[in-house]
C-alpha cells in the first residue's frame, strides 16, 4: 500500500472542505484519513504526528474554539497564497 501522492496540507484541506460545515475536530481529520486512504490505516503514530505538525505549521489552518472543543478550518485565501508561492518558485513559509 503506497502513500497518497499529496502533501499532508493538501489532504487536511480536502478533509475539511469535504465536511458539511467546513470544519473538523482533530479526531474527525484522523477518521477522514483512515476512511479515505488504506495507507493511513497503519503507522498511525507517525502520520498523526505529521497531521498535527501541519495543522500548527501552516497559517492556512485555523483553530477555532467552540462548544464541542476545538475545530480546524481552512483560510482559503492563505492556502491559495501558499500554493501560488510554490508554483512561482518563491520561498514558502
Order of helices and strands: HHHEEH
- Helix percent band: 40-55%
Whole-Å distance between the termini? 31 Å
- As an assembly, this protein is single chain
Low-confidence runs of at least 5 consecutive residues: none
Strand order of the largest sheet: 1-2
Using the alpha-carbon principal axes, give the shape.
Answer: globular
Outline the biggest β-sheet: 2 strands, antiparallel
Strand pairing plus helix content: what structural class?
Answer: alpha+beta
Number of β-strand runs: 2
By DSSP (H or I, 4+ residues per run), the number of helices equals 4
Strand content: 5-15%
Using only C-alpha atoms, the radius of gyration works out to: 13 Å
How confident is the prediction overall: mean pLDDT? 89
Structure description:
With 93 residues, the chain is an alpha+beta fold. The protein is 53% helix and 13% strand. It is built from four helices and two strands; from the N terminus they run H-H-H-E-E-H. It has a two-stranded antiparallel sheet with strand order 1-2. The mean pLDDT is 89.
Short description:
The chain has 93 residues and is an alpha+beta fold. It has 4 helices and 2 strands, in the order αααββα.
Amino acid at each position: 500500500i503506497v502513500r497518497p501522492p499529496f502533501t499532508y496540507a493538501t489532504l487536511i484541506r480536502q478533509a475539511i472542505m469535504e465536511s458539511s460545515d467546513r470544519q473538523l475536530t482533530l479526531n474527525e481529520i484522523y477518521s477522514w484519513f483512515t476512511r479515505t486512504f488504506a495507507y493511513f490505516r497503519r503507522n498511525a503514530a507517525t502520520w498523526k504526528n505529521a497531521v498535527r505538525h501541519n495543522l500548527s505549521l501552516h497559517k492556512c489552518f485555523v483553530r477555532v474554539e467552540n462548544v464541542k472543543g476545538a475545530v480546524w478550518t481552512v483560510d482559503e485565501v492563505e492556502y491559495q497564497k501558499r500554493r501560488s508561492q510554490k508554483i512561482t518558485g518563491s520561498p514558502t513559509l
